[in-house]
């Protein structure tokens, strides 16, 4: 995949947001909120940052790998995988439908190119990513392993088992990102189960922590990922606290947990699509 | 045990099956550089120390964090490694069921979940650690192979065999010193029942430590003029249905024997096979819907009805129901 310039990344993001909304609307189910919020991150990774091959093989030797731990934001991942050539954009039509490779939550059972492990039950992705990163070291493969987690997901105990492990073994070819949108299903994280000072927590566990304060600004997201890479290879795993807004890009969805897991109506879809330019052609 | 019994299989040495695992893992590691080991703070108990010493770069101490261990192992398959995880059977299954379900079984990862201290014969530690539900949990998972070998030699052979098998495996073994009555040079065929003793009146299907009890029971039955067939079901899933059906067609009734709950164990799998193919009386030897307790392995097998005497009783009951 060639590195796409900033202007093109912004265009791709607009199309990915349209894909997300149309996929979720078509089946009246799925998770648009954090998918919209993480669009810049996914586009930056797949169209600029990662060294990857859309012909896809499971082992990914010599490639950067990406793991999605908060599997419910599958719409954004599927759109980006399709738009970067892992499978046809047309296949996005099958999202969450019977006999589809695009399961509600990402899976390997149907052999969807781009997905290396199932996710959905939260808290498991960081462990798998650490394992894959250690194998890269064993294989003398100097590529990176990326993993994205949710902020609500930080409430799962396994995350902290993995955090302790990553620092103990100095898994410094791993870059973890937390989608720090401060929302979860039942409301703001501070009301549901306060995460308190996440940065201090991860630092206390022995990780190199950076913050990307403008997680919906493409330049800032790219700069954050470049910084994360510059800190890799120095004996500590790297954590990128990516401040995003759930529902970003659609005025009536932004900044609330209400769109975590519900689909827009016909009218709402039309309104939302009116706010997002069709840049690469709808599927 | 009655010393005058004429046993079809005998032993000169006793050893724990977990040592078979440790020695098998070392051999598998020497044979295949992709074999890696992970352990959750039980290296000594799991007998993984020799592997760790010989292959320090391929061994990962994960601390007391079993959920993370399962996830790590699943991730390590990406890039071609063959991870063997080691902890007690309780912490290998119930504690991490969701991690195994999603990251290993559903994701069809080539992870070998190796579980020691299974069943009552764990002994004095008591019911918190004596898991009797693990086979049921693991055999329900699609893609999962479930193996419960009977002695040191068979456990060693099974450990080496699963390294060459592609796909997730649950390998169950135990703590007590147990007779070594199977050959050292055996070939372990996953999914292939081992026909150990020919008989005509009843078939005893046994797994794990209770295969030895079945061998003893056969001699006890023979002394009373009853001819029992003994089949070693080391692989509970996939089950060798053809071997089960063929044997029960000949003998007309069966006993299942396992160190596990009756609900969800080997006996249930055999019952399903028989009911669909060749209905016949089946008696179960296993733990009947209760937890264990502290005690010596022998005391526990006796109290919970899992020894040779109980297999003999069950065989007679099955024959009477023909």
Automatic annotation (TrEMBL), chain A:
* Reported cofactor(s): thiamine diphosphate
Spell out the Gene3D superfamilies in the cross-references. Answer: 3.40.50.970
Residue ranges of domain Transketolase N-terminal in the record: 15-271
One Pfam match: Transketolase_N
Native organism is Belliella buryatensis
Q: Which PANTHER family match?
A: TRANSKETOLASE N-TERMINAL SECTION-RELATED
Could you tell me the keywords of this UniProt record? Thiamine pyrophosphate
Know the name of this protein? Transketolase
Write out the coiled-coil annotation as residue ranges. none
Q: What family is this?
A: Belongs to the transketolase family.
Which lineage is the organism of this entry classified under, starting from the top rank? Bacteria, Pseudomonadati, Bacteroidota, Cytophagia, Cytophagales
Question: Would you say which domain of life the source belongs to?
Answer: Bacteria
User: InterPro entries per the record?
Assistant: THDP-binding, Transketolase_N
UniProtKB/TrEMBL annotation, chain B:
Entry annotated with the keyword Cell inner membrane: no
Q: Where is the Transketolase-like pyrimidine-binding domain?
A: 15-180
Q: Which SMART domains match?
A: Transket_pyr
Q: GTP-binding: is it a keyword of this entry?
A: no
UniProt keywords (A-Z) are: Thiamine pyrophosphate
Q: Give the record's family classification.
A: Belongs to the transketolase family.
UniProt name for this protein: Transketolase
Q: What is the lineage of its organism?
A: Bacteria, Pseudomonadati, Bacteroidota, Cytophagia, Cytophagales
């Amino acid at each position: 995949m060639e590195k796409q310039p900033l202007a093109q990344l912004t265009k791709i993001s607009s199309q990915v947001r349209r894909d997300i909304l149309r996929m979720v609307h078509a089946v009246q189910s799925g998770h648009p909120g954090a998918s919209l919020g993480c669009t810049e991150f996914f586009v930056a990774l797949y169209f600029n940052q990662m060294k990857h091959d859309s012909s896809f093989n499971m082992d990914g030797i010599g490639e950067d790998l990406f793991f999605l731990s908060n599997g419910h934001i599958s719409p954004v991942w599927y759109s980006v995988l399709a738009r970067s050539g892992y499978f046809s954009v047309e296949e996005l039509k099958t999202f969450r439908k019977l006999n589809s490779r695009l399961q509600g939550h990402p899976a390997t059972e149907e052999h969807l190119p781009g997905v290396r492990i199932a996710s959905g039950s939260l808290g498991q992705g960081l462990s798998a990513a650490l394992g894959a990163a250690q194998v890269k070291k064993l294989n003398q493969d100097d590529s990176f392993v990326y993993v994205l987690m949710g902020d609500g997901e930080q409430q799962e105990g396994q995350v902290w088992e993995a955090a302790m492990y990553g620092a103990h073994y100095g898994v410094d070819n791993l870059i973890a990102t937390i989608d720090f949108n401060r929302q979860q299903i039942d409301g703001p994280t501070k009301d549901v189960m306060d995460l308190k000072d996440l940065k201090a927590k991860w630092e206390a566990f022995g990780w190199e922590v950076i913050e990307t304060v403008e997680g919906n600004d493409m330049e800032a997201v790219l700069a954050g990922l470049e910084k994360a890479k510059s800190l890799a290879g120095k004996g500590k795993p790297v954590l990128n606290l990516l401040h995003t807004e759930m529902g970003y890009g659609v005025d009536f969805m932004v900044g609330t947990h209400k769109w975590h897991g519900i689909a827009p109506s016909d009218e709402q879809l039309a309104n939302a699509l009116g706010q997002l330019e069709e840049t690469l052609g709808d599927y | 045990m009655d010393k005058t019994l004429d046993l079809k299989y005998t032993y000169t040495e006793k050893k724990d099956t977990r040592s078979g695992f440790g020695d098998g893992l070392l051999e598998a590691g020497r044979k295949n550089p992709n074999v890696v080991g992970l352990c959750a703070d039980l290296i000594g108990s799991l007998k993984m120390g020799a592997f760790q010493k010989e292959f320090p770069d391929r061994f990962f101490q994960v601390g007391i964090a079993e959920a993370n261990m399962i996830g790590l192992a699943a991730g390590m398959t990406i890039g071609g490694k063959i991870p063997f995880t080691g902890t007690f059977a309780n912490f290998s299954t119930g504690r991490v069921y969701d991690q195994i379900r999603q990251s290993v079984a559903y994701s069809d990862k080539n992870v070998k979940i190796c579980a020691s201290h299974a069943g009552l014969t764990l002994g004095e530690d008591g019911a918190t650690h004596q898991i009797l539900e693990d086979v049921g949990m693991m055999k329900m998972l699609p893609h999962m192979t479930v193996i419960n070998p009977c002695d040191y030699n068979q456990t060693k052979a099974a450990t080496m065999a699963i390294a060459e098998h592609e796909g997730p495996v649950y390998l169950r073994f135990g703590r007590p010193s147990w007779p070594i009555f199977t050959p050292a040079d055996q070939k372990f065929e996953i999914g292939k029942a081992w026909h150990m003793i020919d008989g005509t009146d009843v078939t005893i299907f046994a797994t794990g430590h209770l295969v030895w009890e079945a061998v003893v029971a056969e001699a006890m039955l023979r002394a009373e003029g009853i001819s029992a067939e003994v089949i070693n079901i080391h692989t509970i899933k996939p089950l060798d249905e053809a071997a089960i059906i063929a044997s029960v067609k000949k003998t007309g009734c069966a006993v299942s024997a396992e160190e596990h709950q009756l609900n969800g164990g080997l006996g249930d799998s055999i019952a399903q096979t028989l009911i669909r193919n060749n209905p016949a009386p089946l008696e179960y030897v296993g733990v009947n819907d209760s937890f264990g307790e502290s005690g010596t392995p022998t005391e526990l097998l006796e109290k919970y009805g899992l020894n040779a005497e109980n297999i003999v009783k069950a065989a007679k009951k099955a024959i009477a129901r023909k």
